[in-house]
């Protein structure tokens, strides 16, 4: 039977096994999906061995997302642009394909849960300039969002992203970001603020407009303080779990030949 898995270190917290096992069951596909705890030094050896052990592909997560780029024979344009990989596919001829479906997952989640949001309708305000922000910014650029206002605690990291992703990105000061809330059609938190065990997201939200869409990549807790505050203002809010579910869609389809649904049953399966 075809196998797939998720490679990370640590890996116990990953929700991907539940997601893919749910889809395998749902579509009656014989196969399995397993967590693989692999230290950085062993990544290449493990990846090269997987096809011989019956694996058709693997997701890649922290700390391997950048290193996996160099193991692939072919890297998709979006993975090249993002500079990181989340999906490997092992072809029968031995070649390894690398892709990054995080930006796709981000956008599909918004399309599904905030269908009224028109990417072209106005600027997006993005908090954070780490790996997750790279996927979000490349997806927003692709979707023709007119301007991306980018705020990061460490401003030079935001400036580096602007230099890389181009004219649509405007860097703003972290402490002045709330002044831009009024013009933002979309507000995105890509930082770890608000995550269980991390500090709270404390940017004042006074200027937030009720016709803005607000989304958080943090999904533990599901209703972050940011989303709760946005809801109180009357905004459409989209939680981060949907991005995780949607990023798995292209991978599952490629590996197992069935395009899977993301719906309430899918959410329930991973919670
Ligand atoms: P990921 O891959 O999830 O994006 P990352 O690359 O480590 O993870 O990026 C973490 C992001 O959260 C960064 O934008 C980081 O800001 P800095 O670049 O200033 O470090 C942001 N972040 C983490 N802790 C933060 C905090 N206490 N206040 C503000 N931003 C924080």
UniProtKB/TrEMBL annotation:
<comment type="similarity">
    <text>Belongs to the shikimate dehydrogenase family.</text>
</comment>
<feature type="binding site">
    <location>
        <position position="61"/>
    </location>
    <ligand>
        <name>shikimate</name>
    </ligand>
</feature>
<dbReference type="Pfam" id="PF18317">
    <property type="entry name" value="SDH_C"/>
</dbReference>
<dbReference type="InterPro" id="IPR006151">
    <property type="entry name" value="Shikm_DH/Glu-tRNA_Rdtase"/>
</dbReference>
<dbReference type="GO" id="GO:0004764">
    <property type="term" value="F:shikimate 3-dehydrogenase (NADP+) activity"/>
</dbReference>
<feature type="binding site">
    <location>
        <position position="219"/>
    </location>
    <ligand>
        <name>shikimate</name>
    </ligand>
</feature>
<dbReference type="InterPro" id="IPR022893">
    <property type="entry name" value="Shikimate_DH_fam"/>
</dbReference>
<keyword id="KW-0028">Amino-acid biosynthesis</keyword>
<feature type="binding site">
    <location>
        <position position="102"/>
    </location>
    <ligand>
        <name>shikimate</name>
    </ligand>
</feature>
<dbReference type="InterPro" id="IPR046346">
    <property type="entry name" value="Aminoacid_DH-like_N_sf"/>
</dbReference>
<feature type="binding site">
    <location>
        <position position="86"/>
    </location>
    <ligand>
        <name>shikimate</name>
    </ligand>
</feature>
<feature type="domain" description="Shikimate dehydrogenase substrate binding N-terminal">
    <location>
        <begin position="6"/>
        <end position="88"/>
    </location>
</feature>
<comment type="subunit">
    <text>Homodimer.</text>
</comment>
<feature type="domain" description="Quinate/shikimate 5-dehydrogenase/glutamyl-tRNA reductase">
    <location>
        <begin position="123"/>
        <end position="192"/>
    </location>
</feature>
<protein>
    <recommendedName>
        <fullName>Shikimate dehydrogenase (NADP(+))</fullName>
        <ecNumber>1.1.1.25</ecNumber>
    </recommendedName>
</protein>
<dbReference type="InterPro" id="IPR011342">
    <property type="entry name" value="Shikimate_DH"/>
</dbReference>
<keyword id="KW-0560">Oxidoreductase</keyword>
<dbReference type="GO" id="GO:0009423">
    <property type="term" value="P:chorismate biosynthetic process"/>
</dbReference>
<feature type="binding site">
    <location>
        <position position="247"/>
    </location>
    <ligand>
        <name>shikimate</name>
    </ligand>
</feature>
<dbReference type="Pfam" id="PF08501">
    <property type="entry name" value="Shikimate_dh_N"/>
</dbReference>
<feature type="binding site">
    <location>
        <position position="77"/>
    </location>
    <ligand>
        <name>NADP(+)</name>
    </ligand>
</feature>
<keyword id="KW-0521">NADP</keyword>
<keyword id="KW-0057">Aromatic amino acid biosynthesis</keyword>
<comment type="function">
    <text>Involved in the biosynthesis of the chorismate, which leads to the biosynthesis of aromatic amino acids. Catalyzes the reversible NADPH linked reduction of 3-dehydroshikimate (DHSA) to yield shikimate (SA).</text>
</comment>
<feature type="binding site">
    <location>
        <begin position="14"/>
        <end position="16"/>
    </location>
    <ligand>
        <name>shikimate</name>
    </ligand>
</feature>
<feature type="active site" description="Proton acceptor">
    <location>
        <position position="65"/>
    </location>
</feature>
<comment type="pathway">
    <text>Metabolic intermediate biosynthesis; chorismate biosynthesis; chorismate from D-erythrose 4-phosphate and phosphoenolpyruvate: step 4/7.</text>
</comment>
<feature type="binding site">
    <location>
        <position position="217"/>
    </location>
    <ligand>
        <name>NADP(+)</name>
    </ligand>
</feature>
<feature type="binding site">
    <location>
        <position position="240"/>
    </location>
    <ligand>
        <name>NADP(+)</name>
    </ligand>
</feature>
<feature type="domain" description="SDH C-terminal">
    <location>
        <begin position="240"/>
        <end position="268"/>
    </location>
</feature>
<dbReference type="InterPro" id="IPR036291">
    <property type="entry name" value="NAD(P)-bd_dom_sf"/>
</dbReference>
<dbReference type="Pfam" id="PF01488">
    <property type="entry name" value="Shikimate_DH"/>
</dbReference>
<dbReference type="InterPro" id="IPR041121">
    <property type="entry name" value="SDH_C"/>
</dbReference>
<dbReference type="GO" id="GO:0008652">
    <property type="term" value="P:amino acid biosynthetic process"/>
</dbReference>
<dbReference type="InterPro" id="IPR013708">
    <property type="entry name" value="Shikimate_DH-bd_N"/>
</dbReference>
<dbReference type="GO" id="GO:0005829">
    <property type="term" value="C:cytosol"/>
</dbReference>
<dbReference type="GO" id="GO:0050661">
    <property type="term" value="F:NADP binding"/>
</dbReference>
<dbReference type="GO" id="GO:0009073">
    <property type="term" value="P:aromatic amino acid family biosynthetic process"/>
</dbReference>
<feature type="binding site">
    <location>
        <begin position="152"/>
        <end position="157"/>
    </location>
    <ligand>
        <name>NADP(+)</name>
    </ligand>
</feature>
<dbReference type="GO" id="GO:0019632">
    <property type="term" value="P:shikimate metabolic process"/>
</dbReference>
<feature type="binding site">
    <location>
        <begin position="128"/>
        <end position="132"/>
    </location>
    <ligand>
        <name>NADP(+)</name>
    </ligand>
</feature>
């Amino acid at each position: 039977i075809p196998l797939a898995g998720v490679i990370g270190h640590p890996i116990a917290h990953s929700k991907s096994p539940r997601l893919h096992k749910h889809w395998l069951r749902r579509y009656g596909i014989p196969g399995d999906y397993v967590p693989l705890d692999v230290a950085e030094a062993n990544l290449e050896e493990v990846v090269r061995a997987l096809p011989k052990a019956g694996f058709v592909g693997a997701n890649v997560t922290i700390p391997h997302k950048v290193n996996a780029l160099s193991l692939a024979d072919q890297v998709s344009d979006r993975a090249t642009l993002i500079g990181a990989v989340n999906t490997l596919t092992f072809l029968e001829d031995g070649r390894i394909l690398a892709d990054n479906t995080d930006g796709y997952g981000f956008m599909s989640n918004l399309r599904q849960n905030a269908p009224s949001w028109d990417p072209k309708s106005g600027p997006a305000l993005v908090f954070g300039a780490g790996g997750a922000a790279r996927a979000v910014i490349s997806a927003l650029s692709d979707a023709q969002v007119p301007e991306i206002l980018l705020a990061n605690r460490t401003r030079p990291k935001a400036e580096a992203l602007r230099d890389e992703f181009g004219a649509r990105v405007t860097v703003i000061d972290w402490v002045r970001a709330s002044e831009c809330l009024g013009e933002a059609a979309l507000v995105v938190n890509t930082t770890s603020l608000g995550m269980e065990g991390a500090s709270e997201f404390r940017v004042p939200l006074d200027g937030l407009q009720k016709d803005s869409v607000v989304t958080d990549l943090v999904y533990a807790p599901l209703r972050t303080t940011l989303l709760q505050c946005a809801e109180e203002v009357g905004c459409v809010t989209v939680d981060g779990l949907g991005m995780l579910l949607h990023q798995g869609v292209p991978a599952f389809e490629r590996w197992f030949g069935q395009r899977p649904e993301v719906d309430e049953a899918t959410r329930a399966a991973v919670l």
